[in-house]
Specification:
This protein is mainly α and 149 residues long. It contains 5 helices and no strands.
């Protein structure tokens, strides 16, 4: 199928019309807003047990923060490598391709749900994971809107 868009009209990482600092500021604002459900659930979870986390996540939380291996794993794998690869795949590829057929709005929503449900560690039905899924959904829709511009 052939797209009618020129390369400059394609959303995502191909856009040259916006500054990186403005995109970064928008991304930080979206991330801060999306963190509220998680903070709220964690606060309630500290006083009332809302449900179990998956075992690998609990093991990660139980690891000593004083060990260099914790910070290497967290910084490099969790925040740098995985986050960049996810954004390149979901926003840079999936959202662009869906936008060609569905339009921008439906592509953002479709890609957001694909992103959320690819994080299967949060699909255990309990109150803790509902907050995590809501946070991921807000984050995914926000980042989808930013990458569309």
């Amino acid at each position: 199928m052939t797209s009618n868009r020129s390369p400059s009209d394609v959303p995502g990482f191909a856009s040259r019309s916006r500054s990186i600092s403005l995109s970064a500021a928008r991304g930080l604002a979206v991330a801060a807003f999306a963190e509220w459900p998680v903070l709220s659930v964690n606060l309630v979870n500290a006083f009332y047990k809302l449900g179990d986390a998956v075992r690998w996540r609990q093991a990660f939380f139980d690891t000593s923060w004083r060990r260099w291996q914790f910070w290497l794993f967290s910084a490099v794998l969790s925040w740098a490598v995985v986050a960049v690869l996810e954004e390149l795949f979901f926003r840079g590829y999936c959202q662009r391709r869906l936008a060609e057929d569905w339009g921008d709005g439906a592509a953002i929503v479709g890609t957001s749900f694909l992103f959320v449900f690819s994080h299967s560690q949060y699909l255990i039905p309990n109150a803790y994971n509902v907050g995590m899924v809501l946070s991921l959904l807000v984050l995914a829709v926000g980042f989808g809107g930013i990458s569309r511009e």
